[in-house]
From TrEMBL:
It comes from Solirubrobacter pauli. Keywords: Kinase, Transferase. This is Putative kinase. GO terms for molecular function: ATP-dependent polydeoxyribonucleotide 5'-hydroxyl-kinase activity; double-stranded DNA binding; polynucleotide 3'-phosphatase activity. It comes from the Bacteria. InterPro entries: P-loop_NTPase. GO terms for biological process: DNA repair. Pfam families: AAA_33.
Amino acid sequence: MLTAYDIMPEVMEAVIFSGLQAAGKTTLYRDRFLETHARISMDLLRTRAREAAFLRVCFETRTPFVVDNTNPTVAERARYVQPAREAGYKVIGYLVEVDHAVAAGRNLARERKVPAAGLRDVARRLVRPTPEEGFDELWHATAGPDGWRIEPLLTTPPLF
Ligand SMILES: Nc1ncnc2c1ncn2[C@@H]1O[C@H](COP(=O)(O)OP(=O)(O)OP(=O)(O)O)[C@@H](O)[C@H]1O
Ligand SMILES: [Mg+2]
């Protein structure tokens, strides 16, 4: 018997964000993915066990999802890239980038502030995602006053 899942489009997207705190990742999720992709975020789920359980449900139900964490390193992204590939997802990365000073300013202006040291730590550890990690597509997203500018990552030189 056919189930709803059998007739869903074949391409399921696993979208993995990387970027500093206050760079605009959750804003990007809200602007571009809210209606189509589940949100997996440590801010929301708090523990790796809970995160793993949510990911399992996404895989089992073939639900498109976005991982909305800072994910600065290859190892942190591999946690999602490999299982998503094995589950048959198209794996898409977004580097959400703004100048450190802009991120720091937005951080100070928002309700949920993270310590400046946390921002510096992620900035120090941040490695640009590459296709070798298993990404099928890589995008660079930067939010300016007139909206998102989203371009292929590989042809976008580092902004800063
Ligand atoms: N284009 C923009 N112009 C001005 N402010 C913005 C813009 N995009 C996002 N912000 C503001 O910057 C702050 C940080 O954005 P957001 O919460 O999306 O960052 P984040 O990358 O999800 O941070 P975190 O990793 O800490 O969750 C928010 O207060 C948001 O409203
Ligand atoms: Mg966020």
